[in-house]
Amino acid sequence: MRPQNSPRAKAPRSRSFEVQEENTLMPFLLQALHDQSRTAVKSFLAHKLVQVNNRVTTQFDTPLKPGDTVTVGMNKNAAPFHHPMLNILHEDEHLIVVEKASGLLSMGTERDKTKTAYYILNNYVKNKDPRNHIFILHRLDKETSGVMMFAKNKKVQEILQKNWNEMIRERKYVAVIEGCPQPKQGQVKSYISENKALIVHSTSSQDGKLAITNYTTLKSNRQFSLVELELETGRKNQIRVHMQEIGHPVTGDPKYGATKNPLHRLALHAFKLTFIHPVTGKEMKFETPVPTKFTTLFK
């Protein structure tokens, strides 16, 4: 059955299929898209319009197993997205999930309104249709890399922002910190606020907002530790403040106490985001690899 056209004729359409038995991608697509030619199916792959479990793939021999979801964007006239500091992990008519590189702002400042994830993605959706727009949901610090998402309409933004704590199931980071925390696994809990110099610090419960960070040491040597961090709250600079608070600042972060910078960047990466889709109600999981630079310190 053909998908129904969207009321906005130029908006990209997509079709999703659930895999019932083991297969590889090309034969599965040829069977599922029986109304499309082999050349057209190859073109969808080449234009990065095929996703398996919310991840774009161009590999025709990608293995499939029962329960996998294959999504095909049908608008191959839209220019594929390419940017050296931004990678789209998932896009549907409601949301865009991306991996941001270190050094790129999430959104504009007084000094820089264009070298931002928001500006780049807004241009991308407007190139498809001038009426399109994206909406900010959360942010990553400029020097933090990793997974973040944007809404594609105001209603979705409002649903997520009003129900953020319930709909965001998991937010995990990895970081390289100075020294070796003791105990190797623990929780940091404090009230934090921002002063006039834009430094976030711990304060009293009357003056600050509650911030909770859970950490687990994954690897360590004499100088550094690789830690996994899970946020229970999402305050500005929370991880950086909490690591400084326990005496193990994130490397490359002199603002919050670091004295070493072995990777020539803030060693903080948002590697995992799990949330409930605000429209479909499905659980969405996105995970990116730990940056190679981080792990090479422990070889």
TrEMBL record:
Answer whether the UniProt record assigns the keyword RNA-binding to this protein: yes
- NCBIfam families reported in the protein's UniProt record: rluA_subfam
Among CDD domains, the record links this protein to: PseudoU_synth_RluA_like (cd02869), S4 (cd00165)
User: Can you give the residue ranges of the Pseudouridine synthase RsuA/RluA-like domain?
Assistant: 94-244
Q: Where are the transmembrane segments?
A: none
Q: What is its EC number?
A: 5.4.99.-
What one GO molecular function would you report for this record? RNA binding
| Keyword Cytoplasm belongs to the record | no
Residues at the active site:
141
Protein name as it appears in the record: Pseudouridine synthase
Q: Source species, please? A: Butyricimonas paravirosa
Coiled-coil ranges (or none): none
What chemistry does it catalyse, as a reaction equation?
a uridine in RNA = a pseudouridine in RNA
